[in-house]
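for the recovery benchmark. tokens below, seq after
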């Protein structure tokens, strides 16, 4: 059967009408391929540009963050001053390892202050409810060592509160100055926690605790405490309490007018503390620097966390504080 071209169609010389659709399809395919290649190339270039900008902004933020750490981190450093001045080290908040009022920070600051040739005396500016007896003892020991080494007086100036472990520290000072309304004292030891044994029995919950050593779980809040364990814990508290009493007696000497209540854990106003011999006089940081040290220029040597350390602690606290507090049922403290 012969196929003829459609009527009215003209044929150019050498043109194969039956191949024309295939040629058009090939042309369309090439055009589509070119468009796709351009789109892919544009997308790749766009992604590369976006990646470069991300890298740029990350480097910029890292640079700004590093500059901030360098700038604000200097606040933890101590500035050496050649002229006569009163050196100050703050003891504020909880006295504990890792805190601003830790032995690590306070002792380092005191050493820097007393090693400076321009410092005439060191003032411990205290506003603390207490804390760890270990940290307080380490600071107390360092005060005594530095006083003997540098032969410079150390004064304690109390703002709102100087209780328990804070007073443990203040007792090492040559003199203690308070405001008439300051809270001073609380010479005692505390071991606190909770017991849930009765609640567990009501709820039908069984505590399964395995130990190697009959007294290993003596402070477990979900297990009962035997009379022997309670007696042992009380002996430990009494020992630490006696250490505290000895430190106060040695530090205050004949100035202390001890009564039956002095070492009972009670606390008093600053005015009462002066009358009892727990403090020497009413005074403030400015009055001590001006009238006692006679060096009105005050230089703060307090060691504090820099920005990086604060950020790390905040992130760590946000993630772990709940877990730590949930697991910390018992703790010995002077507060």
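predicted aa per position
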């Amino acid at each position: 059967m012969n196929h003829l071209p459609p009527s009215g169609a003209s044929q150019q010389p050498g043109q194969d009408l039956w191949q024309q659709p295939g040629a058009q399809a090939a042309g369309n395919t090439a055009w589509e391929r070119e468009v796709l290649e351009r789109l892919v190339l544009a997308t790749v270039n766009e992604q590369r540009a976006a990646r470069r900008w991300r890298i740029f902004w990350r480097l910029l933020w890292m640079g700004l963050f590093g500059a901030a750490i360098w700038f604000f981190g200097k606040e933890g450093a101590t500035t050496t001053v050649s002229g006569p001045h009163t050196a100050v080290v703050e003891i504020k908040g909880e006295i504990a390892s890792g805190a601003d009022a830790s032995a690590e920070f306070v002792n380092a600051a005191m050493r820097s202050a007393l090693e400076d040739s321009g410092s005439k005396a060191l003032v411990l500016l205290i506003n603390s409810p207490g804390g760890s007896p270990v940290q307080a003892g380490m600071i107390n020991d360092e005060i005594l060592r530095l006083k003997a080494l540098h032969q410079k007086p150390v004064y304690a100036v109390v703002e709102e509160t100087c209780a328990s472990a804070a007073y443990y520290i203040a007792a090492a000072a040559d003199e203690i100055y308070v405001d008439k309304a300051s809270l001073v004292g609380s010479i005692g030891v505390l071991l606190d926690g909770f017991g849930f044994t009765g609640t567990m029995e009501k709820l039908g919950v069984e505590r399964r605790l395995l130990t190697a050593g009959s007294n290993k779980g003596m402070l477990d809040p979900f297990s009962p405490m035997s009379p022997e364990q309670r007696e042992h814990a009380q002996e430990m508290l009494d020992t630490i309490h006696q250490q505290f009493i000895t430190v106060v007696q040695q530090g205050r000497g004949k100035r202390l007018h001890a009564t039956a209540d002095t070492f009972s854990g009670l606390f008093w106003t600053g005015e009462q503390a002066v009358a009892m011999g727990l403090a020497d006089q009413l005074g403030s940081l400015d009055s001590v620097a001006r009238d006692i040290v006679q060096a009105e220029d005050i230089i703060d040597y307090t060691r504090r966390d820099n920005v990086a350390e604060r950020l790390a602690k905040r992130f760590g606290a946000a993630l772990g504080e709940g877990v730590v507090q949930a697991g910390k049922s018992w703790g010995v403290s002077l507060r």
